[in-house]
Amino acid sequence: MSAIHFGTSGWRDIIADGFTFTGVTAVTRAVARYLKARGQARRGVLVGHDPRFLAERFTRLAATVLSEEGITVRQVEQAAPTPALSAAVLDLKLAGCINFTASHNPAEYQGFKWSNAQGSPATLEEVAPIEREANRLLAKNGGQAPRGVRRGKILAFDPKPGYFTRLRKMLPLPVLRRARLAVVADPLYGAGRGYLDEALRLAGCRVYVLHDSRDALFGGHPPEPDAERLAEATELMLKQRACLALGTDGDADRFGVVDRDGTYLTPNEVLALTVYLLVRHRGWQGRVVRSVVTSHFVDAVAGHYGLPVQVTPVGFKYIGESMSRGGFLVGGEESGGLTIAGHVPEKDGVLACLLMTELVARERRSLRAVLNDLYQQVGRVYTGRINVTLSARSGGGRLRRALGRFHPQRLAGHKVASLDRLDGYKFILDNGDWMGIRLSGTEPVARLYLEAGSRQDLNRLAAEGRKLLETI
């Protein structure tokens, strides 16, 4: 099999091609030896999964390997959201968590995500020795297949009660329950089933639920809660005259929000609205943390309230690191990840949906109305993201080399004022518009990120970005 490589959110590959039982054995054994070398193995490890194909078998295999290595395992029997697993790591004071999930990726993908003892996605420094050892084991003996000899205990574990205990502490339940809102919940056949809908009922909502059965193919579509995937939920919301349609992705760490008029709100807008909610209604203060390709609108709202902003590379592990240093208010990414102070240092799509429900309950008006007020105060921006599939000829390496030589003086009729290389290539124009380009760590895809002060300028940037990627 091909070499194992950890990307932004762990090791992901196509099932039975790059992602195999042999590979899982090698990586799990590498995790065990990493923990033993650092004296952390005695704390135990959590192993969980989302509803993907073979997820339960991969989970049992990892638990068996860890037990052979003398590590006590808490094994999650049912699919569970990534943030619920993160909460369990903290509550049980474990050494970390192995989570079999490929999040929002298509159904043919599976993933191995390692989270550290802080409940945060592991850093590059933490996964580097695991990756090296896993590949060494593969080259030596194919990962050393498990013999089934248990030296450590394997204990069944349900993360749901502990996670809901944390949610109750994060939410003003009396405020939510008084509002008696009607909402649509769509977990997209993912791990949010039984979590998103139950959390909304806990908040006193009348809930209409879609796609809450097990389907390892996610209805034939990637489980990403964007406008297209939430179209059915939007239709039901309009039919039932509900106030929101809310969705989560495959492992429920990402969110999707549709306003009562059928308008899909971008994750950038939801992050800005969360800043507004926490400051305006809860009176919280602190640092706003965002990834480099997240909207500058978030900065403008934070600045309006006198809050500092920290910019990180893409990957929620960087936001988790920032959260651990204190003085944190909220962190998020344009891809639909968000957490707030006092919660887990991990993306939580269920919490994000509840926060938007809280904002509607408090304001007694649509999210779009709140957004329009913010735009009047700090300025309007338009954002976009385009995925361009790379051909075999124009692979990632070729594109990366070409971008390294790409130094435009002008884009979309404006001077390029600066180039940000924190993560990928972000060209910032003299009028504040910008275009970012990153390569996916999982799929043969280049991502084009765009932001402009007008729809016309956004379209112009998009056209130039597409042309650039398609000609390289």
Verbal overview:
The chain is of the alpha/beta class. It has 3 domains: 11-159, Alpha-D-Glucose-1,6-Bisphosphate, subunit A, domain 3 (Alpha-D-Glucose-1,6-Bisphosphate, Chain A, domain 3), CATH 3.40.120; 171-378, Alpha-D-Glucose-1,6-Bisphosphate, Chain A, domain 3 (3-Layer(aba) Sandwich); 382-471, Alpha-D-phosphohexomutase, C-terminal domain (TATA-Binding Protein, 2-Layer Sandwich). It is built from 15 helices and 21 strands. The chain has helices spanning 21-37, 55-68, 82-92, 124-141, 160-170, 173-179, 196-202, 231-240, 267-281, 296-304, 316-323, 349-363, 367-378, 396-404, 455-471; strands spanning 11-14, 45-49, 73-76, 96-100, 109-115, 154-157, 182-186, 206-209, 244-248, 255-259, 264-265, 287-291, 309-312, 328-333, 337-340, 382-389, 410-411, 414-420, 425-429, 434-439, 445-452. The strands form 4 sheets. It has a 6-stranded mixed β-sheet, with helices on both faces. Strands 16-21-20-19-18-17 form a 6-stranded antiparallel β-sheet, with helices on one face. Helix 1 packs parallel to helix 2 (55-68) and helix 9 packs parallel to helix 10 (296-304). The two termini are 30 Å apart.
For the terminal residues, how far apart are their CA atoms? 30 Å
Tally of structural domains: 3
Sheet with most strands: 6 strands, mixed
Work out the helicity level. 25-40%
Q: Which percent band covers the strand fraction?
A: 15-25%
* Total strand segments: 21
CATH topology type of the largest domain: Alpha-D-Glucose-1,6-Bisphosphate, Chain A, domain 3
Mean pLDDT: 94
